[in-house]
Design brief:
Number of helices: 14
Structural class: alpha/beta
Largest sheet: 5 strands, parallel
Number of domains: 3
CATH superfamily of the largest domain: P-loop containing nucleotide triphosphate hydrolases
Distance between the termini: 52 Å
Order of helices and strands: HEHEHEEHEHEHEHHHHHHHEEH
Bound molecules: adenosine-5'-diphosphate, magnesium ion
CATH architecture of the largest domain: 3-Layer(aba) Sandwich
Helix content: 40-55%
Length: about 400
């Protein structure tokens, strides 16, 4: 396993989070977006966390995708609770030995020694303040796939609680609670910051830089060290392949491993084979999306089409939308029918549509937007069942009941 460290990026972000950068407002919350599998979690845990810790910050990391069945608010509470019990554990032991039921922290907060580690009873912001005061250090709370919090009301309330904890703990020149939120989908993450009443209204979303030619350089130098016969490695072709793989290291490394394997039977250059694998992967991904789309009922297709076309402006049941569905399916569509179709799209496995607790919709996988735009550009939208003309579509499939 190769890990390419991105220490400089982690250091720059740490400075910004501490409020020491000249510009920007990362000290109010840093929102990082990048597509799935491009290395966000790896960076947050493997690079950012150690750099923050080296700067004396207590880091709590939680991935809201780690257990999709549990409420996101509980996942965050648990992570804070665990950090708290780690810090308080010793204190509590001493207190219990001395027969004390409560421990006082920093002379103000009283904590029930039997309840340490659970933050029911303690509010989220009290728990964070307690953690800060016992650790006598600034905290960073890293919430990975933070947009998932918006799918539950408790999760939304938790986000508002975090904001108020931030406002209570931080003062000009002293950042005691740093918040880092990552997301695989910029549109969804935006809902935390861009509507009136959104928990972090006014904050900016930053695109997390993808792994780039320095990553390729690193990989190339490892190959050259191990296989001098392959010198010089064609970095340009490898970079091109990596970009085709959507900057996703895992697929790139797999293809590289196969091309370099003594069992590959390859006669030409391995870089060319990796590039060919990247092209293959890209067309496989597109074919998969196309077949998912073609497998839908006509109304589901129309709703998904509308969602892809409208993006954040999507309103599922307005007159325009209903007209659109009617035009595409050639049957009258009631709001109830449209809602059923949306629910069906959400309940598929994997889900095609995402819904927030406030009833906002988005495609589940942002890669679909790129695919849609590409098809529109090339005049190949909507996808066709092979051998079927466009005007036949929707007419010879079962009508929605
Ligand atoms: N810096 C890196 N160096 C090498 N491989 C990486 C790096 N970052 C990510 N990867 C690989 O890419 C895969 C996906 O990364 P991950 O951090 O889970 O992405 P994300 O959180 O954006 O979905 C990981 O399994 C890992 O193998
Ligand atoms: Mg991740």
């Amino acid at each position: 396993m190769i890990h390419y460290s991105r220490t400089t990026l982690a250091q720059n972000l740490t400075v910004a989070l501490q409020g020491k950068a000249l510009f920007g407002d990362a000290h109010n919350g840093l929102f990082l977006a990048a597509p799935r599998r491009t290395g966000k979690s790896t960076f947050l845990q493997g690079d950012l966390r150690p750099v923050l810790e080296a700067a004396g910050v207590v880091v709590v990391y939680v991935d809201l995708w780690s257990d999709q069945r549990r409420d996101p608010a509980l996942l965050v509470a648990d992570a804070i609770g665990r950090a708290l019990s780690l810090k308080l554990g010793l204190l509590a032991k001493v207190a219990r030995k001395a027969g004390l039921e409560n421990v006082s922290i920093a002379g103000t907060l009283k904590i029930d020694t039997s309840k340490i580690g659970r933050i029911d009873g303690l509010t989220l912001s009290e728990a964070l303040r307690t953690l800060h005061e016992t650790a006598k250090a600034p905290l960073a709370l890293i919430i990975d796939e933070a947009q998932h919090a918006l799918t539950s009301e408790a999760g939304e309330a938790m986000m508002s609680a975090l904001k108020s904890a931030r406002d209570q703990l931080n003062r000009p020149g002293q950042v005691n609670l740093m918040l880092v939120m990552s997301g695989s989908d910029r549109d969804k993450l935006l809902r935390l910051v861009n509507t009136n009443g959104a928990p972090f209204f006014g904050s900016q979303i930053t695109r997390m830089p993808e792994l780039d030619q320095h990553f390729i350089q690193h990989v190339a130098s490892l190959i050259e060290a191990q296989r001098p016969d392959l010198k010089p490695v064609d970095q340009q072709t490898l970079l091109q392949a990596f970009e085709k793989f959507g900057h996703r290291p895992q697929f790139f490394m797999e293809a590289l491993g196969q091309a370099l394997s003594p069992l590959s039977g390859l006669t030409g250059r391995f870089e060319t084979a990796v590039l060919a694998a990247a092209n293959q992967k890209q067309s496989d991904d597109e074919r998969q999306m196309e077949s998912n789309y073609l497998g839908l009922k006509p109304l589901e297709q129309a709703v998904l089409w509308r969602l892809l076309e409208q993006g954040a402006r999507f309103r599922p049941y307005d007159a325009e939308a209903l007209r659109f569905y009617k035009e595409k399916t050639q049957t009258a569509v009631s709001p109830q029918k449209a809602q059923n179709a949306l629910e069906a799209l959400r309940e598929r496995n994997p889900a095609l549509v995402w819904k927030s607790a406030r009833g906002e919709y988005s495609v589940d996988d942002a890669a679909m937007h790129r695919w849609f735009q590409q098809c529109v550009q090339h005049g190949t939208w909507p996808p066709q069942v092979p051998g079927q003309a466009q005007h036949e579509l929707g007419l010879n499939e079962d009508a929605e009941d």
